[in-house]
């Protein structure tokens, strides 16, 4: 009897291009595989003990004789490779229409409406890397107090501001204003506050980042679990990604290590249902920055914490370690990559060394969680519970 599932998202750790990667310009992408190639190896003994190297098609890691967990990988049905799409599919939704992107910046009408409502001009309004654009426009921002608005290949409207120029609460207010404007025809998946500190040449973005998402377009397994009386605990940016929907309790985190601490903290408390954790540093600090060395180190640091995490599981607990998309730090550009995600499952009730194969949709994870908790599923995805329990 499992009554608590930890859904643990290693943000962006894809394990190879999906069959439709060509449509996304991502043929040859392989976040984990290419990090291993570029760095000449990786030390992940704990993920490997669960079955990481036994996953079909994985590159650069050898299979072992007797993995302790069930393992597999999944294709993504939804037409997107962003965090929102990936997490919503993990929670049992399929997005048939991709989110709108603005590769050439936002339309004049949107910017005008925004400037009018915040009572200031803006800087930027183009697609850019978040660390590069604050260096580029930082000086002008400090001088004028105008926020920096930028986007990326993702469906995002990002507002960067120095914390001493625009206080956090004011920045969040601007995001809420943008959220109201960017609905309907101009709906972006997320408005993101990107505060930073420091001086020109050495600006640093802070963990006060906040994402203001659209509501998921349908009921997720989180909503269903909540309605059925379970706890749905969000660690990291999960609460933001679901705009609070289906969440009963949430904590934001400083970084990956804090995310692991908070997950363990909740495992040590009395609760039942879902603990949904996202570790975003892999994506934001290393993937988008195309820093393979840093990404590898972050993976190794996380792997060292896995025994502690597994030890915190009680006998009715199960952990599913997954990802939400790829972000190959050796690939062209600075964007996400359309990839398979890994699935590693461990718990007393889980049969060791079971290959759950290649799942057709991330929604299989939601369907499996529903099956395990004994609640209705969203109708999307197939449960693989019977394979592994
Ligand atoms: O370059 P930064 O600001 O990190 O932007 C990245 O973060 C955003 C949200 O994940 C994405 O749009 C991506 O491009
Ligand atoms: Mn992500
Ligand atoms: Mn990202």
UniProtKB/TrEMBL annotation:
Its EC number is 5.4.2.7. The keyword Flavoprotein does not apply. Mn(2+) 2 binds at residues 283, 288, 336. The keyword tRNA-binding does not apply. Mn(2+) 1 binds at residues 11, 324-325. Binds 2 manganese ions. Isomerase that catalyzes the conversion of deoxy-ribose 1-phosphate (dRib-1-P) and ribose 1-phosphate (Rib-1-P) to deoxy-ribose 5-phosphate (dRib-5-P) and ribose 5-phosphate (Rib-5-P), respectively. GO terms for molecular function: magnesium ion binding; manganese ion binding; phosphopentomutase activity. It catalyses: alpha-D-ribose 1-phosphate = D-ribose 5-phosphate; 2-deoxy-alpha-D-ribose 1-phosphate = 2-deoxy-D-ribose 5-phosphate. This is Phosphopentomutase. It is found in: Cytoplasm. Pathway: Carbohydrate degradation; 2-deoxy-D-ribose 1-phosphate degradation; D-glyceraldehyde 3-phosphate and acetaldehyde from 2-deoxy-alpha-D-ribose 1-phosphate: step 1/2. Its cofactor is Mn(2+). It comes from Clostridium aceticum. It comes from the Bacteria. SUPFAM superfamilies: Alkaline phosphatase-like (SSF53649), DeoB insert domain-like (SSF143856).
């Amino acid at each position: 009897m499992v009554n608590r599932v930890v859904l643990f998202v290693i943000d962006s750790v894809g394990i190879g291009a999906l069959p439709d990667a060509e449509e996304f310009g991502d043929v040859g992408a392989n976040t984990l595989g290419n990090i291993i190639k570029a760095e000449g190896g990786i030390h992940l003994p704990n993920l490997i003990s669960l079955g990481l190297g036994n996953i079909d098609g994985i590159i650069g890691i050898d299979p072992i004789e007797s993995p302790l967990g069930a393992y597999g990988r999944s294709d993504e049905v939804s037409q997107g490779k962003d965090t929102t799409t990936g997490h919503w599919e993990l929670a049992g939704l399929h997005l048939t229409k991709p989110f709108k992107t603005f590769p050439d910046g936002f339309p004049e009408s949107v910017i005008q409406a925004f400037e009018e409502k915040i009572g200031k001009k803006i800087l930027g309004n183009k697609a850019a890397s978040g660390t590069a654009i604050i260096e580029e426009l930082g000086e002008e921002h400090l001088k004028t107090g105008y926020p920096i608005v930028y986007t990326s290949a993702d469906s995002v409207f990002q507002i960067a501001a120095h914390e001493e120029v625009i206080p956090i609460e004011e920045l969040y207010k601007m995001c809420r204003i943008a959220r109201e404007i960017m609905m309907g025809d101009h709906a972006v998946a997320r408005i993101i506050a990107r505060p930073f500190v420091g001086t020109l040449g050495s600006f640093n973005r802070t963990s006060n980042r906040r994402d203001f998402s659209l509501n998921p377009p349908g009921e997720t397994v989180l909503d269903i679990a909540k309605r059925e009386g379970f706890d749905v605990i969000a660690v990291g940016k999960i609460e933001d990604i679901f705009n609070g929907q289906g969440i009963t309790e949430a904590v934001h985190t400083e970084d990956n290590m804090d995310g692991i601490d908070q997950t363990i903290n909740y495992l040590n408390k009395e609760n039942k249902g879902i603990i949904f954790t996202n570790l975003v540093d892999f994506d934001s600090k290393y993937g988008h920055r195309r820093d393979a060395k840093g990404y590898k180190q972050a993976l190794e640091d996380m792997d060292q914490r896995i025994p502690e995490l597994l030890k915190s599981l009680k006998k009715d607990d199960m952990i599913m370690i997954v990802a939400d998309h790829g972000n190959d730090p050796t690939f062209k550009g600075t964007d996400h990559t359309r990839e398979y995600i890994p699935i590693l499952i461990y718990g007393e009730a889980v049969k060791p060394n079971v290959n759950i194969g290649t799942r057709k949709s991330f929604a299989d994870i939601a369907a499996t969680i529903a099956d395990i908790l004994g609640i209705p599923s969203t109708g999307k995805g197939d449960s693989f519970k019977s394979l592994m329990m």
